[in-house]
């Protein structure tokens, strides 16, 4: 039997076949969790935010429209809004910097990296954390989640050209922060 596309599954969910959300959950739970983990550096919050996204996918299933873009774009738009709500409520970047050590210790089992990569991962996470949240989000979506500029454009409501410029600037800033860390 051939595998249904994300869009087909979501259209089924939209029509009331909520069991198909289970397949979408299997496909995207880890990706969403990692997306939130890179933005929050908080495992517990990432789990909660991931659950919130799937709750909202079901709650707002009637707003899904294939003509407006892929399921993945729609899902990340919801994820972005969930993160924005969370960030508004929990603006605590200084605290997160202190907690980064605890989160960093457990990243190897999630990413499969060797101990030799620990220092570079730690440095990258510190650099990401020191960036503005909107720039960090662009880097996570484009580089860690592998979304295309067009998808990020639909998620953010900005033009593709604007996204390209912003991603370029964010990478340049990340590079500067990363190489200037002691």
How many helices? The count is: 10
The CATH architecture of the domain at 1-91 would be Orthogonal Bundle
The CATH homologous superfamily of the domain at 1-91: RNA polymerase sigma factor, region 2, helix turn helix motif
> H/E element string?
HHHHHHHHHH
Share of residues in strands: under 5%
- In round numbers, the mean pLDDT is 86
Q: What is the number of strand segments?
A: 0
Distance between the termini: 54 Å
Show the helix and strand layout:
Blueprint: H1 6-14, H2 21-40, H3 43-59, H4 71-89, H5 93-105, H6 107-111, H7 118-129, H8 133-144, H9 149-156, H10 160-180
How would you sum up this structure, described in words?
The protein is built from ten helices and no strands. The longest helix is centred in the last third of the chain and has 21 residues, at 160-180. 25% of the residues are buried. With 182 residues, the protein is mainly α. The chain is 75% helix and 0% strand. α5 (93-105) runs antiparallel to α7. The radius of gyration is 17 Å and the shape is globular. It has a domain at 1-91: Orthogonal Bundle (Rna Polymerase Sigma Factor, Chain: A), CATH 1.10.1740.10.
């Amino acid at each position: 039997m051939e595998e249904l596309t994300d869009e087909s599954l979501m259209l089924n969910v939209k029509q009331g076949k909520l069991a198909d959300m289970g397949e979408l959950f299997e496909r995207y739970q880890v990706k969403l969790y990692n997306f939130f983990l890179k933005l929050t550096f908080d495992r517990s919050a990432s789990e909660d935010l991931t659950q919130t996204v799937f709750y909202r996918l079901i709650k707002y299933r009637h707003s899904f429209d294939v003509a407006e873009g892929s399921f993945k774009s729609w899902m990340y738009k919801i994820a972005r809004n969930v993160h924005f709500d969370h960030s508004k409520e929990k603006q605590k970047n200084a605290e997160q910097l202190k907690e980064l050590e605890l989160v960093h210790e457990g990243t190897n089992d999630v990413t499969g990296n060797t101990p030799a990569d620990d220092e570079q991962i730690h440095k990258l996470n510190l650099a990401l954390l020191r960036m503005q949240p909107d720039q960090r989000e662009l880097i996570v979506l484009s580089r860690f989640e592998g979304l295309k500029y067009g998808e990020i454009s639909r998620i953010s409501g900005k033009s593709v050209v604007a996204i390209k410029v912003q991603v370029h600037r964010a990478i340049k800033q990340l590079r500067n922060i990363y190489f200037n860390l002691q």
